[in-house]
Amino acid sequence: MSFLGGRGGNPAPSGGVNLEKVEMAVTELDTITDFFNRMVQSCHSKCISTRYAEDDLNKGESVCVDRCVAKFNDVQKKVGEKLQSRGAANAGGGSAFGSL
Amino acid sequence: MSFLGGRGGNPAPSGGVNLEKVEMAVTELDTITDFFNRMVQSCHSKCISTRYAEDDLNKGESVCVDRCVAKFNDVQKKVGEKLQSRGAANAGGGSAFGSL
Amino acid sequence: MSFLGGRGGNPAPSGGVNLEKVEMAVTELDTITDFFNRMVQSCHSKCISTRYAEDDLNKGESVCVDRCVAKFNDVQKKVGEKLQSRGAANAGGGSAFGSL
Amino acid sequence: MDFSNFNPAEQAHMTKIIEKKQMQDFLKMYSNIVEKCFNTCCNDFTTKALTSKEEACVTHCTEKFIKHSERVGARFSEMNAEVMNAQNQS
Amino acid sequence: MDFSNFNPAEQAHMTKIIEKKQMQDFLKMYSNIVEKCFNTCCNDFTTKALTSKEEACVTHCTEKFIKHSERVGARFSEMNAEVMNAQNQS
Amino acid sequence: MDFSNFNPAEQAHMTKIIEKKQMQDFLKMYSNIVEKCFNTCCNDFTTKALTSKEEACVTHCTEKFIKHSERVGARFSEMNAEVMNAQNQS
Predict the structure, then answer these.
(1) Does the keyword Transferase apply (chains A, B, C) (predicted)?
(2) Which one of A35, A82, A94 has the shortest CB-CB distance to E69?
(3) Does the residue E68 lie in any domain?
(4) Does the structure's ipTM exceed the value 0.90?
């Protein structure tokens, strides 16, 4: 899921910290976390009954969650391809920064 | 849209970076971005049909989006005036910080 | 509401700033703010009529808000106990970080 | 929150951070009100300007949201004071 | 925004910050599209793979969301230009 | 994620950052559960205390949310492992 492109460059030679590389990794981490949290929320809405009469996921809910994760991931890929084919640069037009 | 008040002070004399000024600008940037993103979400809910049978905004959707942006902006002004007339200081009473 | 555990350690002896202690306090502050904001949003949905024909909370809305705050707080405690009894360490299994 | 075990330098540092967060918090409440009142009050997109009905709705909605936040804040603050008291007496 | 009272060092600093924020903003739009299009288009969990109907829906939804954002951005930018003009003439 | 091209100093730095983020992530899950279970389970504001029915609902809701998150995490982690394997074999 390294959609931020290759992690730039080799390790800093003498054991120093390449701050730009670390910052890039943090952005990637935040993105994955955000993605995961949205997947949890979306699949909860799609699959988990709100009657809350028991503590366990029932069979139907469990199967639904498994498929939901697979589909959410497919949608993520599809949308990523679409955005890439339009050109990341171009897509900036729909952001606040294109408008200032 | 400089609702954060005048950007404090002149440039630092000898080419240094006035960190407080930069921080203020970043807060303003974040606020505008947040505002823009909420406008995109709200106008999407109000104007874009969820049938998704085609790739383009149709005539009705396009006109709706234009008016939606204008109205959202008007609401932003109205709310801002209301908050200002109440006094920014006072309004802090409804925040977590007034309660600690 | 110090659910982040005791604030570590004594003041730094000679008037320096113990950055770790400050960071902990900031995390606690952010958590309380987030909690407060969600309480405002949830109780607004539960209690405030969307007809908006007047400027004041009516009697029914006011009483509802008071009870809503008490219940929201109770739910926060219940959920906290549940999470604690499962072990904070364990609960990390449902986060993005357990999955990388 | 209890800053009694903070030294003066640490308290000064926290005060600056809290001031900045109050500003951000105020701006967030501002955006929340705009979003909520727009979504509730504006449903007619045959015009570009706010209708007088929409305008009145936005005004009431804003005023009520602030009063609601203040009331939640007051109750929240009472609850926290009770917890503090209970801790100090034990 | 108006950076005319920023010196070159401050402008260089802001440029770097803005570039980073553009990246984050792009990633946020990406997640928003995924969330919205998944929630709207996927309602059949009897299969693991996207059905062709769901796939077509996601494609249209993505394309429309981008065009929608661009249109909102264009209108927003016109409005800001008007405000700037009004300020400069007064 | 793959930190194989990080030197020891960089890895130590990342470990500290990840620990901090795990804490924030846990707190966010906490708030998400409170919000979701409150919104679903509490609809009776004729009383100030939680009714026994509401309390049971909150308990089940919390337990189910955690199990749900864990299941999503397990599937997510399998998927990432597959992607890694595929990359290493090519």
Answers:
(1) no
(2) A94
(3) yes
(4) no
Question: CA distances (Å), C11 to each of A3, C16, C20, C30, D2, in order?
Answer: 44, 8, 11, 22, 13
Tokens for B47, please give them.
């104007």
For the purposes of burial, counting CB atoms within 10 Å of the CB of D37, is it exposed (0-12), middle (13-18) or buried (19 or more)? buried
- Check A40 against C99: CB less than 8 A apart: no
How do residues D10-49 score in pLDDT, each as one tens digit? Answer: 899 899 999 999 999 999 999 999 999 999 999 999 999 9
Interchain proximity C41–D64, CB inside 8 Å: no
Structural domain containing residue F43: 8-89
D12 found inside a domain:
yes
| Residue C71 contacts residue C43 (beta carbons within 8 Å) | no
Q: Percent of chain F having pLDDT more than 70?
A: 98
Specify the DSSP class assigned to residue C17. -
Place of tokens 């950076």: E3
Give D50: exposed, middle or buried? Use CB within 10 Å, 0-12, 13-18, 19+.
Answer: buried
Residue entry with tokens 């987030």: C34
The CA distance from E7 to the nearest CA of chain A, in Å, is 19
**Mean pLDDT across B19-47:** 94
Residue type, F13: H
CATH class of C19-86: mainly alpha
Other Cβ atoms closer than 10 A to E23: 16
Of C18, C40, C73, the CB nearest to D10: C18
Q: For the packed helices E8-41 and E52-89, what is the interaxial angle rounded to 10 degrees? A: 150
Alpha-carbon gap, residue F56 to F41, rounded angstroms: 9
Which chain C residues are closer than 8 Å to B95 by Cβ? Answer: 33, 36
Does the residue E3 lie in any domain? no
Residue of D nearest to B44 (CA): D39
Our CA dihedral for C67, C68, C73, C74, rounded to 10 degrees, sits at: 70
Contacts of E35 in chain A (CB under 8 A): 38, 42
Pairwise CB contact (< 8 Å): A88 & E42: no
Q: Reduced to 3 states, what is the DSSP secondary structure of residue E47?
A: coil
Q: What are phi and psi of A90, to 5 degrees?
A: -60, -45
How far B100 CA lies from chain A's nearest CA (Å)?
29
Number of structural domains chain D divides into: 1
Domain with residues A19-85, CATH architecture: Orthogonal Bundle (1.10)
CB-based contact C68:F45 (threshold 8 Å)? yes
Q: Tell me: pLDDT of C10 over 90.
A: no
Please state, in angstroms and as integers, the Cα–Cα distance from residue B79 to each residue in A1, B2, B83, B86, D54, following that order: 42, 15, 6, 11, 13
In this predicted model, what pLDDT tens digit does every residue of A49-82 receive, in sequence order? 999 999 999 999 999 999 999 999 999 999 999 9
Is CATH 1.10.287.810 what the domain over B19-49+56-85 is classified as, yes or no? yes
Q: Are B99 and C36 in contact (CB under 8 A)?
A: yes
